[in-house]
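Bug report (template v2)

What were you trying to do?
Predict the complex of my protein with zinc ion.

What happened?
Run completed; filing so the output is reviewed.

Input:
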Amino acid sequence: MSLTALNRFLADNLFYLLLGILLLNMLQRRERAASANKRLATFYLAVIVLAWMIGTILIVHFGLPDALQLLLIGALGFAAYHFRVQIWPFRRSCLKCGGPLSGKRILYHEANLCENCEVIPPGPGGSSEPGGPGGSTGPRGPSDPA
Ligand SMILES: [Zn+2]
């Protein structure tokens, strides 16, 4: 597939990827257990895909050099890597026992713990903050996109 064809394909189809991510974000909104950080993560993902889509459409529409796509992917990839903790808080296995997590838990639950591990209360006298790895100092609060 040539770079030109790739750009055309992306310009035509990135919209559906964006739509899928926004749909997921809406589902997270509906789910009461959904964590704010994971909702923010799908929001950031949507922003990155939107930037990718707009950039690609500009390249195709104005007949810009196709190699700009590589620059675009590089720049967005760099940004995504830099903010990877915020953008990708999802884990496929339980942080405590390593067991597999259900799709719901992956998408909605903050702690990335399986049913068994989450039910068990934290040890006596311990702080109630599990202090998950990955630095849960994500942006929270008034900047929550509505
Ligand atoms: Zn577990």
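What did the reviewer find?
The pocket of zinc ion is lined by residues 94, 96-97, 99, 113-114, 116-117 (CB under 6 Å). Residues 134-141 have pLDDT under 50 and may be disordered.
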